[in-house]
Fold:
Amino acid sequence: MTPTRRRAIATLLAASLVASAVGCTAPGHPAPPAASSASPAAGPEPGPDAGSSTPVADPIYPQYGNPALDVLRYQLALTWSPQRKELSGTATLTIRAVKPVREIALDFADSYTVDGVTIDGGAAKPGRRGNDIVVPTRQELAKDARATLVVRYHGTPHTVPMPSGRRDFPEGVGLRSAADGEAWTMQEPFGAFTWYPANDQPSDEALYDISVTVPKGWAGVAHGQLVEIKSTDAGDTYRWRAVDPVASYLATLAVARYTRIDAVGPHGLPITYWLRTGKDESLEPAVRRTPRLLAWLEERFGPYPFPTIGVVVVNSLSAMETQQMVTFGNGIPARATTGEALELVEDILLHEFAHQWFGDAVTPKDWRGMWLNEGWAMYAQWLWSVDQRGDTDAGWVAWARERDGVSRPVAGPPGNPHPEHFGENNVYAGPAFMLHQIHRTIGDPAFFALARDWVQTQRNQQVDRAGFVAFVNRHTGRDFTSLINSWLDSPTTPAS
Structure:
């Protein structure tokens, strides 16, 4: 790994930030939808408990989320006006009471005007508590009772500050709009509440059905799978559906004049690339490498865990592992030398695709577990660069030790990061090094069997450190408790 490329990766991912096509639209022109067009079926209708979770209060950001509620499904009917830069929507939430409650309190930005609220069809009068919308119930909801909440709203979205020293989120997190009317999101660790009422915490995963209505010539892209496009005089409506549960930070929305490119990945996996027309064509060669990246990941970590994958490009300096639709910043290539830009884009995509296994299919219960996401994705990128780029384990070990040594004293140990230093080097480099030590101890066959089984046995679940330690010890027949706890809790970088 050259020093320039290593610096670029460190900046983007961990430092003080961080198959062939089967058809495409004509270059430079957005895909004009037919009156009604659809993608391959999104699979069978999920059961009534498919979006059920066990929410917990987040110890890092306790002001977000409500552990008394479990949102099972979000149905969002959204309309974006590029001219007014206004979002209007009707959010229909199916909610289970985790314990008896007399109010439904959800994260929802006060920049929106609430036009009407109902609970189970009856009108309700909402109140405000900071950035929460609070809706009294007509009678107490018993434990495990369900309610349907409908919120109609409109307004101009605003981001909130990123609680971090990272430099790749200067505009904050959440939904934001540009002068030309484009809109897009990145919202880790929170920010879903800037565009819909949400239980904005990682432990409450839910199913999603999102329709986005935009003017003709524009496209509305979201996480999940595109199942239908309808064209009317009012504009074009893109409908997206996620049949696997999604944490709120893994949701995404992007609106722009997009060129859609269709491709096929391993085992016939449907892939879509969304490039802003006239702006992102230089990224096409890199994003078209997606089938190769997925095949490499599948060989090591098992089958890709979702029915589709995509990449949507937005006006950002960063990238995000949004579920089934990676959000990728067009500013990333500029942070490498000209000769290494294509490789850098490919490396960052590999990292975000690795998250589909680690972070998306298996999600941390709270933000103390971010190391589970980033440690695995960073280590996947480590393995990729050694296998494909001619880099060395020794070079990565030196990089990880140096980066961890700088970040850990400032941002805290990976298992208990400081709230104001979210997503910094401490949750990337050290945990990747920890996985490398486990790998080195047990060898290739046992390590990759562990990685594959971790995803397959925990799929669509929320996990924590105790569960990971127990799984590793049980799977390997060895006791790695001390090693793992040392890497996650030590105020300084442990010895190798």
User: Anything to note?
Assistant: The first helix runs from residue 3 to 14. The first strand starts at residue 21 and ends at 24. The radius of gyration is 22 Å. DSSP finds ten helices and 24 strands in the chain.
